[in-house]
Amino acid sequence: MATRTITEGISVARRRRFSETYIGEWLMTTDHKKLGIMYIVTAFFFFLVGGVDALLIRTQLAVPNGKVLTPEIYDQIFTMHGTTMIFLFVMPMLTGFGNYVVPLMIGARDMAFPRMNAFGYWVVLFGGLFLTSSFLFGAAPNAGWFSYAPLTELNAGCGTSGVVTCTPGLNMDFWALGILMLGISSIASALNFVVTILRLRAPGMTVNRMPLFTWMTLITNFLLLFAIPSVTAASILLLLDRHLGTHFFQAGFGGDPLLWQHLFWSFGHPEVYILILPAFGMISEILPVFSRKPIFGYTFIAWSGVAIGFLSFTVWAHHMFAVGLPLVAQAFFATSTTLIAIPTAVKIFNWVATVTGGKISFRPAMLFALGFVAMFLMAVVPFDYQVTDTYFVVSHLHYVLFGGTVFGVFAGIYYWFPKMTGKLLNDRLGQLQFWLMLIGVNLTFFPMHILGILGMPRRIYTYPGNLGWNELNLLATIGAFIIAAAILVFLWNFVITLRSGQPSGPDPWDAFTLEWDTDSPPKPYNFPVIPIVRSRRPFYDKKNPEIADWKTATH
Amino acid sequence: MVALYQRTVLEKSKIVTEEQEQRKQPSNQRKISKEAMEYAIDPKRSYWPFALAIALFITLLGVIVHPVIFWIGVALIAAAIIGWGLERR
Fold first, then answer.
1. Domain coordinates in residue numbering, chain A
2. Closest CB from A110, A117, A119 relative to B52
3. B70 interface with A at CB cutoff 8 Å
4. What mean pLDDT do residues A164-191 have?
5. What DSSP element (H or E) covers A424?
6. I want to staple A368 with a disulfide (CB 3.0 to 4.6 A). Which of A282, A411, A465, A488 is the partner?
């Protein structure tokens, strides 16, 4: 047996393990910050994919009798636009922000289950690739993001006579299996967030002192835990109907055609709040910092989020008023829908009160936050029965999800980008992007209100030129391209900032919460010593010990 | 009232003392190098989340493409779950 003596001064060269290479580090990471960035980048990629879909739709509808796409491709494009934007952009984007920010905000070193966190991310990525790869098979989903059964049954049996052609091919199989996969990811990440927030908060951070973004993330993830099983069950039932001869949704065989709508919307409406509550949380963090004031009505904002969470499970049938529900059910769902406006309004009043009298600094993050509040107000125009299945609904939905969530997401990007990269995005380009987006959003979606009232049905492939819809459709298309220009400005800003951006330092906004009490970007372990929290603005306390909140406030 | 005030002051001073104690702790442990401490609290890497996710992807693709791919995916899922469970952390 050979022996070897290593004398002092001789360095022993060791081949780097794969896990220590650049690619290996990202492939194997369980660090919540890296995973957060991966979620955000992936979601942004799918935002671009969904955006191209949107431009194709708008180009097709720009003029009457459009022939840019075939009807079959058009169906696939509008279905994948909705599916991509909801399941592959907004949900992963908000999960990404939660992943990056929440553990830092609550003074934790990582998520409760780091490997499950990584698993959630990889499933989203592969789920997204799975759904998108359907285009390669020429079989992208084509029945709308809501995939109403029995329309989505296989090739016969969706009508009572059993001979009507429904959705043959693999299109809806891709959708059902993709949603199943994304549901697994959502459940994994939701469990992780709930346990992390409930168990890993820094000493002294009581529930009453949690940052509002953390509050909203907690509520959102409870909603996910209860909402996702519904759409997962529906997808499995649909697959069984399509391939194993069951008839859950077929009236002709004793099934119930409305069952799909109940199952889907009992997921779908909480889903709306899943998509907007984290944005509420972001706005509740950003407005106080750029107004130099504590948030107004912390308790009301937090608990109105809880109220929204509960009520969101009681409003699903307002998507179904036109299906012939009993009057009692219609009255119940109309009432609960009205009720949910109350906690939402509470938040809006509190945000306005936070900004009022503050020393407002109009940095891009603040502009997007204010834009969010304004655009979200546009989304609550009350109108329902008469405009069912018209472009009015498309407009309303986009004011919520684009005017609301996307503005919130960009507010979050401008706010937390320095923490993630150590660099400040360019302010002038940020302002240009904001104004382009504000103009683009209103030019695209406001005319759709009028189109809806004029009777233009949603999802139509084209329209004749004598219905008075031409100019409004052209305006909407021009607006969509202005939004695209705004996104290009952002991409340019992103690239030049990463190349030669101004260093931000650890706390560029003079912020209040714990994530800013770390380096930018933070060390892998976040905090060398876990901080002790004594108020709702722990970092503000640390920077201003003589006027610390805990000396004056009772919470 | 006075008793309540005294108790509040006492509790506040106790919190400060605990905080100071906690902050002192790292300085008592200087024998452990900074690198070693950072290593101990760094998030540990793992292949298995990636492996399990790709196995799930292959399984679902198998449902669409061919049963053989489906069963390969199922086997990979089983392997990934076992690997995940046995990984030393």
1. 29-552
2. A119
3. no
4. 92
5. strand A423-424
6. A411
CATH fold of the domain at A29-552? Cytochrome C Oxidase; Chain A (1.20.210)
User: A with B: how many residue pairs have Cβ under 8 Å apart?
Assistant: 84
Phi, psi of A457 (to 5 degrees): -75, 150
Contact: B47, A28; criterion CB under 8 Å: yes
Instruction: Express each pLDDT in A295-341 by its tens digit.
Output: 999 999 999 999 999 999 999 888 888 888 899 998 999 899 889 98
End-to-end CA distance of chain A: 70
Reference A309, options A279, A340, A285; nearest CA is A340
Please name every residue paired with A457 in a beta bridge, in sequence order, or none if there are none. Answer: A390
Q: Identify which of B19, B38, B54 has the shortest CB distance to residue A126.
A: B54
Q: Does B69 touch chain A (CB under 8 A)?
A: no
Chain A interface includes B17 (CB < 8 A): no
d(CA A33, CA A334): 42
φ, ψ dihedrals at A392, nearest 5°: -60, -40
ipTM exceeding the 0.95 mark: no
Q: Are B38 and A19 inside 8 Å of each other by CB?
A: no
Which chain A residues are closer than 8 Å to B43 by Cβ? 29-32, 109-110, 114, 524-525
Query: Tell me, what's the pLDDT at A250?
Result: 86
Chain centroid to Cα A288, Å, comes to 22
Q: Model confidence over A8-45: pLDDT tens digits?
A: 445 556 777 887 888 988 999 999 999 999 999 999 99
Indicate yes or no: CB of A126 within 8 angstroms of CB of B63.
no
